[in-house]
Amino acid sequence: MQAPSQNQRAHMALLATAFIWGINYAISKYLLTGLFTPLQLIFLRLSGGMICFYIFQKLFVNEKVARKDLVMLAFLGIIGFGLNQTLFYAGMALTSPVDASILHVINPILVLIFSSLLIGEKVTFRKTGGILLGSSGALLLIFYSSGLSFSGNHAYGNLMIIMNMIFYALYLVLIKPLTGKYKTSTILKWVSIFGFIFILPFSIKPALQINFAGISTSVWLLVLYVIIMNTFVAYFLINYALERVMPSIVSYYTYLQPFIASAASLTVGNGSITSTKILAAVLIFSGVALVNSGSGKEIKPADISKERSSRSE
What we know:
Layout: H1 6-22, H2 24-31, H3 38-60, H4 67-94, H5 97-103, H6 107-118, H7 125-145, H8 153-179, H9 184-208, H10 217-242, H11 247-252, H12 256-267, H13 275-292, H14 301-312
C-alpha cells in the first residue's frame, strides 16, 4: 500500500484540526458560562499551550531563530495567539456557538484576499468556486438549525468574533513564509511565548482569582482539551499543513467545522439526518474536492528542506 504523499498528509492534518475545532464551540461556551471569565480561560490556554510548545521544542528540536525574524514572530504571537484567542473567548461569552460558527465562514474569504495582497497567492477558479460551494453548504447547515442574531449583547460578541477572524486570517498568511525557514515546533514556541507575554498584564489578576479548589475534575478535563487538543495539537497540525499548502487551502477547512459539530450530535442521539443536512454535506465536500484538485503541487517538501538547509549553512 502506497504511503500518503506530503500533500495528502497536509489535508489529513487539516481534517483532524477541523474535527478538534468543530467541537470546541460548545466546550468553550460551557466553560465561559459561570465557570471562567474570558481572560481567565485565555490565561489557562496560553500559559498551558506555551509550556507544551516550549518543552516539545527543547526536547526534540535544536534550532535558532534569526533576530530579524523574532520581530515577525512577536507580531504573529500578538495577533495569532494573543488578540485572536482573546477576542474569540470574549465574543463567545456574549454570543452563541451557532453565531460564532456562522461568522467563521468568512475566514477563507479573508485569507484568500490577504494571501493575494500580501504573499502573491493566485486567486484561481478552483479556489473561488470551492469557497463559494463550501460557504453555501456551511451557511445552509447552520441557518437550518438557527439564524444569526444581532440583538443585545450578541452584536458585541459577533463583532469580536469578526475581529478574531481578521487577526487569524492575517496570522495564517503572514506565518506562511516562515514555515519554509523554521520547523513547526520552533515557530510555535516563539509565537506562543510572545502571545502569552502580550496577554499577561491583562489576564494575571483575573487568573489569580480563579477558585482552583472549587473546579471539578470533569471541568479540568475540558480545560485540558482546550490546552492540549485545541491549542497544542491543533496549531501544530495547522503549521504542519502550512508548510505544504497555501493559506487559502488551510482556511477552507473552517467549512467542515459546523458539519462535524452536527455529525457529532448524531452520535449522541441529538439531531437527525435530513435532506437539508445531506445537501449541505454535498456542497461542503464538493468544495473540498474542487479546492484539493488544484492544490497537489503547490508546495514541494524538497523546497522546504532546501530553504532550511541553505539558511543553516
